[in-house]
Amino acid sequence: FERGLIDFPSVHDDREIYLCWQFKDDHVEAWHETDAGFAGRQNVAMLDDDQPREQAA
Questions:
Q1: What is the pLDDT of residue 51?
Q2: CB contact at 8 A, 56 and 30
Q3: Most Cβ neighbours (<10 Å): which of 1, 37, 39, 49?
Q4: Range of the domain at 38
């Protein structure tokens, strides 16, 4: 099974993260810690919130 994923290295709050684009997404919708992988994806809108982070769809 192929997901068509591309991770783009980025920096947020002085730590390295990956912005995660998935085939058929119109734009980057998720991110994850460098050691989290696909299962750790979170919505990019949550990066600047102080609220608990939710998993991306």
A1: 47
A2: yes
A3: 37
A4: 5-48
pLDDT in tens, 26-57: 999 999 999 998 899 999 998 876 544 455 55
pLDDT, residue 21, reads: 93
Q: What residue type is 10 in one-letter code?
A: S
Average pLDDT for residues 7-33, to the nearest whole number? 93
55 found inside a domain: no
- Is 54 inside a domain boundary? no
Burial (CB count within 10 angstroms: exposed 0-12, middle 13-18, buried 19+), residue 42: buried
Q: Provide the number of structural domains found in the chain.
A: 1
**15 within domain boundaries:** yes
